Amino acid sequence: MLVINPEECIDCNLCVPECPVDAIYSEDDLPEDQHLFLALNERLSQQWPVLNTVKPPPKDAGDWENVRDKLEHLQE
Ligand code: SF4
After folding, report:
1. pLDDT tens track for 21-61
2. Which residue's CA is the nearest one to ligand 1's atom 6?
3. SS3 (DSSP) at 45
């Protein structure tokens, strides 16, 4: 998982179609059941390191791509 800093995001939406698992929404299109992620992105983007290079996906990415409601597994 990665998060987006809402203070730095300019809402260009270029990342939305690039996400291979359709996990990114513009704030205007965010489903009601995903609104908790707004605060989570804001908080974690202050704690987690900034990615400034392209990284390969985690080895277990395929295991998780179709798992729903996996927030309980988040390790901060
Ligand atoms: S690419 Fe995505 S995260 Fe980056 S500024 Fe545009 S909308 Fe925000």
Report:
1. 999 999 899 999 999 999 999 999 999 999 999 999 999 99
2. 12
3. helix
Side-chain half-sphere CA neighbours of 10 within 13 A = 2
Pocket test for ligand 1, best of 7, 9, 18, 26 (most atoms within 8 A of CB): 9
User: Which CATH number applies to 1-76?
Assistant: 3.30.70.20
- Locate the ligand 1 atom nearest the alpha carbon of residue 11 and give its number: 7
The residue written with tokens 């985690």 in the block is 58
Of the candidates 23, 29, 34, which has an alpha carbon nearest to the alpha carbon of residue 11? 29
